[in-house]
């Protein structure tokens, strides 16, 4: 081969390699990871479905949805997050199960250059690129206003709440208390934890009814605890006599409202939350502007409008 031909062949090979590298760059997937508190309830499954819809709309995105076994397994969530940081994923969308435990690993993500979208449960971390969720304090206030109307502003009222220290639970409880504790005719019995679990919600409700047979109303700060409380109320043949309000508006809870087994439930829109969270994470991974605070909104579901939430 002559010198000229060698130079032409080398140039052709270099061009082919450059083209191959360019093609590989175009087909490389953008790895986005959603880490929720759990996947053991309808709420998280619906949020996951919304996230998957957003990812499916972008052929360059590869989505993984990971979670601990239960919401109280905060150490598992921390381990999941640390693993994703080591993998240098393109972006994280995180529903923090705990504040003190999760913040250090979020700092690690930032140090690694991984943008983080906070989902559902806000945390005091100034480096988040976006928060996507609802105003939980407002939801608690709306639940409190409904309870006061339902009991005529008089009687014993209690709360069954989720994991201590979790912002969503704290905000829902705070909003509810802001309303009911101002009513002079209400006897506030306090809040009992049930870790957002159905079986524990039933146990706590049974204990409340035993100690306070004249209990007028209960607000459970998520659907699973409300459904457990509903079972305990039904077992005592008190359905319709004890006002029960839940939070999340999963299909089972909404059907219970429609059937008169539960009085009301505060609605979230988990598919919308999951979809917007991933959309913002994709934008952040590509270095594009993101919306800093996305309020998806909440609504009160009663027997009168329950059918709308079952479509």
Question: Can you describe what's shown?
Answer:
This protein is of the alpha/beta class. The chain folds into 2 domains: 28-133 and 270-295, 3-Layer(aba) Sandwich (Rossmann fold), CATH 3.40.50; 136-267, Response regulator (Rossmann fold), CATH 3.40.50.2300. It is built from 10 helices and 12 strands. It has helices at residues 3-27, 42-56, 74-86, 99-111, 136-151, 167-180, 198-211, 223-235, 251-258, 270-285; strands spanning 30-35, 61-66, 91-94, 116-119, 130-133, 155-161, 186-193, 215-220, 243-248, 264-267, 293-295, 299-301. The strands form 2 sheets. Strands 2-1-3-4-5-11 form a 6-stranded parallel β-sheet, sandwiched between helices. A 6-stranded mixed β-sheet has the order 7-6-8-9-10-12, with helices on both faces. The model is unreliable at 1-25 (pLDDT under 50).
Number of domains: 2
| Secondary-structure class | alpha/beta
What is the C-level CATH assignment of the largest domain? Alpha Beta
CATH architecture of the largest domain: 3-Layer(aba) Sandwich
Task: Please provide the ordered H/E string of secondary-structure elements.
Answer: HEHEHEHEEHEHEHEHEHEHEE
What share of the residues lie within helices? Answer: 40-55%
The CATH superfamily title of the largest domain: Response regulator
Count of DSSP strands: 12
């Amino acid at each position: 081969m002559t010198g000229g031909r060698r130079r032409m062949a080398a140039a052709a090979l270099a061009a082919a390699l450059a083209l191959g590298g360019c093609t590989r760059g175009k087909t490389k997937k953008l790895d986005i990871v959603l880490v929720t508190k759990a996947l053991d309830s309808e709420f998280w499954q619906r949020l996951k479905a919304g996230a998957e819809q957003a990812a499916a709309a972008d052929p360059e995105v590869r989505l993984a949805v990971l979670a601990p076994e239960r919401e109280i397994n905060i150490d598992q969530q921390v381990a999941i997050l640390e693993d994703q940081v080591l993998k240098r994923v393109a972006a994280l969308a995180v529903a923090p199960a705990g504040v003190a435990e999760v913040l250090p690993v979020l700092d690690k993500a930032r140090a690694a250059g991984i943008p983080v979208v906070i989902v559902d449960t806000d945390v005091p971390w100034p480096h988040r690129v976006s928060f996507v969720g609802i105003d939980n304090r407002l939801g608690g206030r709306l639940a409190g206003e409904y309870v006061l109307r339902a009991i005529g502003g008089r009687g014993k009222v209690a709360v069954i709440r989720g994991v201590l220290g979790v912002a969503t639970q704290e905000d829902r409880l705070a909003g509810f208390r802001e309303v009911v504790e101002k009513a002079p005719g209400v006897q506030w019995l306090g809040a009992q934890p049930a870790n957002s679990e159905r079986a524990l919600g039933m146990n706590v409700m049974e204990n409340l009814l035993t100690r306070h047979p004249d209990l007028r109303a209960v607000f459970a700060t998520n659907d699973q605890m409300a459904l457990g409380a509903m079972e305990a109320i039904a077992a005592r043949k008190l359905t319709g006599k004890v006002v029960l309000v839940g939070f999340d508006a999963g299909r089972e809870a909404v059907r219970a409202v429609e059937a008169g087994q539960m009085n009301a439930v505060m609605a979230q829109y988990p598919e919308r939350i999951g979809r917007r969270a991933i959309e913002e994470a994709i934008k952040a991974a590509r270095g594009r502007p993101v919306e800093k605070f996305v309020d998806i909104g909440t609504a009160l579901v009663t027997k009168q409008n329950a059918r709308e939430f079952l479509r």
